Amino acid sequence: MFTKARTKLTLYYLVIIMAISLFFSIIIYSGLTFELDRIQDRQRIMRPNPAFIIDPDIIIETKTRIFFSLLTLNLIILGISGVSGYFLAGKTLDPISEMVEEQKEFISNASHELRTPLASLRTEIEVALRDKELKLKTAKDLIRSNLEDVKRMTKLSNYLLELNKFQEDFRNLKFSNVNLADIVKEAVGKNKVKLNLDKVIVNGDNDSLIELTRILIDNAIKYSGGEKIEIVTKNPGILEVKDIGMGISKEDLPHIFDRFYRGDKARGSNGYGLGLSIAKQIATIHNAKIEVISKLNQGSAFKVVFS
């Protein structure tokens, strides 16, 4: 698909460039030949003085040379434009190609995550229906299990909606001056963590910043067992969440913000690998960046730096 699109785009570039090139070539040729014709006309008037007469064959030859010089120049432009146009077409289509590939991967991963609980639901229900002596207690256990799968799918759906919100609907966010210390207090809730908060004013959307902070706190709790978590706010515009937990390996560190990515140690835990993707999206909207320092079995520190 993209090969055909690249070829078409290259042809469009060539048509536009050659149209411009031919247009100016015609103007140049017309201008130069007009001057040669004017010289011939003047020669007819100056015939009494043959010393200043130019041979008409030379004028014809000069016109021919001008024509072939411009033709050669246009062929060179055609060749250079073809190569350049193909290169530029590739560069133009690269972001679209990457977006399509990401979309395909996203749909594939989302389908996989939804397929697992759906398959579990179907299997349990089919087994229960085959049991002609299904007891009330067994039926209740089945409903509880099914309810857990429904909750998982609901959670995934909410994550997907959050991603969509911060990718497409961020223009509806309400930016104002907010205190990061207040954001942290709201996000912490009843979780027991160490707070070291200075008053830090940044321009941002209150609700989305609470969501970002909550994601970082939930991650710290999940991968540290909820022990020794510290949250720091300090000027100029820094929010940091630190934990002493399992940490992140060097291999996993470059990918932790990728959608649906979970490191080896994280695969056994509940989650979909979407939280940090959402956090990064929120940070990007606020012209902030998330820096991560982590060592295996020593813990992690996520620092959000606002510009």
3D shape: elongated
By CATH, the superfamily of the largest domain comes out as: Histidine kinase-like ATPase, C-terminal domain
Find the CATH topology of the largest domain: Heat Shock Protein 90
**Count of alpha/pi helices:** 6
The CATH architecture term of the largest domain is: 2-Layer Sandwich
Task: Describe what this molecule looks like in 3D.
By secondary structure, this protein is of the alpha+beta class. It folds into three domains: 2-101; 113-170; 174-306, Histidine kinase-like ATPase, C-terminal domain (Heat Shock Protein 90, 2-Layer Sandwich), CATH 3.30.565.10. It is 62% helix and 14% strand. The chain contains six helices and seven strands. The strands form two sheets. A five-stranded mixed sheet has the order 2-4-5-7-6, with helices on one face. A hairpin with a 3-residue loop joins β4 and β5 (238-243). The longest helix has 75 residues, at 56-130. The model has no long low-confidence stretch (mean pLDDT 79).
What key phrases describe this protein's structure?
single chain; 307 residues; alpha+beta; Heat Shock Protein 90; five-stranded mixed sheet; two-stranded antiparallel ribbon; 6 helices; 7 strands; elongated
Write the layout of secondary structure elements.
Layout: H1 2-45, H2 56-130, H3 136-168, E1 175-179, H4 180-188, E2 194-197, E3 201-205, H5 206-224, E4 229-234, E5 238-243, H6 275-285, E6 288-295, E7 299-306
